[in-house]
Amino acid sequence: MIEEAKANSIKINESGVYLVSYFFTGATNEDCSLTTSIRANNILQPATNTTSEFQAQIINNISGSTIVSLLKDDHITLNIKSSITVNLIFNGSTNAMLSVIKIS
Questions:
Q1: CA-based diameter of the chain, in Å?
Q2: Residue 29 banded pLDDT, cuts 50, 70, 90
Q3: What's this model's pTM, rounded to 2 decimal places?
Q4: What pLDDT, on a 0 to 100 scale, did the predictor assign at position 3?
Q5: All structural domains of the chain with their residue ranges
Q6: Per residue, what are the HEC states of 31-88?
Q7: How far apart are CA 76 and CA 12, in angstroms?
Q8: Is the pLDDT of residue 88 over 70?
Q9: In the chain, which end has fewer C-beta atoms inside a 10 angstrom radius, N or C?
């Protein structure tokens, strides 16, 4: 029902209602706000625009989930945007997850 697609997206193979869960953990080099969101075909999905304050050099987390109706051939992406230009610290703590499960 779901397959991995190009450009770090997940392609939906069957229309239906899906549970979409996401997670990001990491540390930035400066204090900032990071906003995560889920997009289907580059359209923001309901209740997925989540902002968290990240402290420099501290491992922080953002997670969430939503239930959305998706169509065959939709492309789902996890998006992360910073309030300022920052660097992520790749010390083994940086990770992201996007899970898409058909529920009906």
A1: 42
A2: very high
A3: 0.84
A4: 52
A5: 2-102
A6: CEEEEEEEEECCEECCCCCEEEEECECCCEEEEEEEEEEECCCCEEEEEEEECCCCCE
A7: 8
A8: yes
A9: C
